[in-house]
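Figure-free illustration: sequence to structure, shown twice.
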Amino acid sequence: MPPRSTAGGSGVAGSPDDGGDGRATRWVDHRESRRAEFVRIARRTVHHHGPDVSMDEIAAAAGTSKSIVYRYFGDKIGLQIAVAEAVVLQIRGALEGVLRVAPTPRDGLRAMVAVYLEMIESSPNVYAFVTRDGSVESGGPLGHFLDSVTALVAAPFARGLTDDDGTALRLDVGDASARPHLRDSGHAALAEVWAAGAVGFVRGAGEWW
């Protein structure tokens, strides 16, 4: 979030001077609370009315004007990214839980597929809203969403690639050449590659489904 002005006033664009009484802190809390409220309303509106819902419709559901919503998110892409962050936060616990107990990276991949598809099934409209209108490279909603999910998957993958004493383990994918790659290039880089590939595959399969 960009730095806020310390100029006085109560408009959304600025924040009041602290004055030693916590007003600035209360302002930040209010702004974050208001953003979260808009995100919840946007998710509910998209869920019921589809991914093509307009900003006017979202603002109407929130009982305010589109210009006020824009003050908190900049534009529709900003709102899409905020909704994507909320979706990722919601599935984080489930995803980390199943990957933590998976005995092998392959089992973890199966569990990740189930969690990801359950997320799509729970609200296809919200999933479409946060993954449309932008390429993976653009830094838009789709790229932001996939980067966040990949990061969730990569860390448990990295843990699954080493045993308790830090020795590299062979990936359970029938490729014995994985071990030297682990030793030479590092677990984190390889885990990120596997995670990105897995998320990309599941995303494609899920959208086809």
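We now fold a second protein in the same way, so the two outputs can be compared directly.
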Amino acid sequence: MIWLHILAPMAIAYRLAVHDHNRGRSIVIQALVLVAVVALFTGAMTVFFIGLAMVLLGFILAWAMRRGDSLTMAGIKGSGYLAGLWLVLWALTGPGEISPTQALLASIDHSLSAAWGQEENAATLEYMRRFIARAWPAFLAISLISLVWLNIAASHWLLRKKSPGLSPWPELKQWRLPDYLVAVVALALGFLLLGFEPLATVGLNGMLILGMLYFMQGLAIMSHLLAYWQLPTWLRVICYALVLIQGYGLILLALLGLADLRLGFRERFGAKTE
């Protein structure tokens, strides 16, 4: 069920892009009415409203396509919407109720306790709890960004499979972050190394979020290089798996994305890309 919620924006954006605006909107509304009726009779209205929030994200992505926004701008708009929704839910939390932030931290703490145990790894567990208490804004932001990017990538891929002209965006392996973001990396690292609170916590969260963004750029560069070397699909899958299942592989991809500003991998290896 959770995957239906996560990928609902992709389905909405795809449908609105394939059909003209009025036809696509009509199809989406009819589907929502049908789902609402089913949810009403099954007592699943809470699940329906959660899904409705994801549907609005699909409309935002579709409008970004229609306006010709860049991939980065579409991601900013989608992530901004989800962040705003989170803030609204937090603001509406009444006295004595569990806020979304508290629910998130409780869920993470439960997962840590289940994974590490309460007694065998008490010191490690306590360290992880302190770290999560400082870095939870970054983990929340990374989750929202990942959700938006997953839907952008999936809808973009499906649209290009149907007809390359349906998506206004270039191939994802050509996506790059703005060059000036490197200055933000330097600032966040400086705050972290200073060690003075709350600047150190701000720097920690900034480095985690920026690390995620540069990891995504590194993944795009890796995709470009694998295409340049014309590796068969099965070998590309193995390469992705070897990198993604290792913690240091994620760090290496983030460093690859950061180094692209100076080294320009996609410009150096651009002749044989697919």
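Summary for the second example: The chain has a mean pLDDT of 86.
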